[in-house]
Design brief:
Layout lengths: L1 H22 L14 E2 L4 E3 L5 H18 L9 E3 L3 H6 L7 E4 L3 E4 L6 H17 L1 H6 L2 H11 L11 H13 L6 H6 L2
Helix pairs in contact: 2-4, 4-6, 6-7
């Protein structure tokens, strides 16, 4: 009886991770190498190694901007750069330019290879770090997205709604606080 239970437990232990890998694709951010990515360090993975220089430059520029604008990271964000839509979809995403999974990783799609998009996603990472994932999830969208669109140097003058309204609302709120206490003020939201 014990052997039978042990075999069942072992079988379930194998089936659950394999099923999760195929049924919930965002879990692949934990092991991007198994999804065909080339991870050159703990922070940058690329689909196409020939695009590594571009990915590294985007990452470094965004990291410098975000740390000089907001704060240093507790843990530098991990970015997975997909050059093809097929790669992006292999992580379970379709329409966004990039998609973050809390502080675990951000997957950049083929249309997301722009410095302001990488900065936008790094801002979400630092929001999660500074405020915690539970608080982050309860923050008003105008703050979460407004901050990311506003402080990321997004050059688009008129975003589609509701994003433009969120950016405008954040900018107004930001004028009314001391920027040095942004995280204290954000925690009050």
């Amino acid at each position: 009886m014990k052997l039978k239970l042990l075999i069942i437990f072992f079988a379930i232990s194998l089936v659950i991770p394999i099923a999760t890998w195929f049924l919930y694709k965002p879990v692949r951010v934990f092991f991007p190498e198994l999804a065909g990515m080339k991870c050159v360090n703990k922070n940058i993975c690329v689909e196409n190694i020939q695009k590594l220089d571009v990915a590294e430059n985007l990452y470094i520029k965004a990291e410098n901007h975000v740390t000089s604008t907001l704060s240093t990271f507790k843990v530098p964000p991990k970015f997975i750069f997909c050059k093809t839509q097929k790669c992006f979809e292999s992580f379970g995403f379709e329409k966004a330019s990039a998609q973050g999974i809390g502080t675990v990783a951000t997957v950049v799609g083929p249309n997301g290879w722009k410095s302001y998009i990488i900065e936008h996603e790094m801002i979400h990472h630092i929001q999660n770090e500074k405020l915690g994932s539970i608080k982050f999830a309860s923050l008003p969208t105008w703050f979460v997205e407004g901050m990311a669109y506003s402080l990321s140097q997004d050059p688009r003058t008129n975003l589609s709604e509701p994003w433009e309204s969120h950016r405008r609302t954040f900018k107004q709120w930001y004028k009314e606080i001391n920027p040095a206490s942004i995280w204290i003020e954000a925690a009050k939201l």
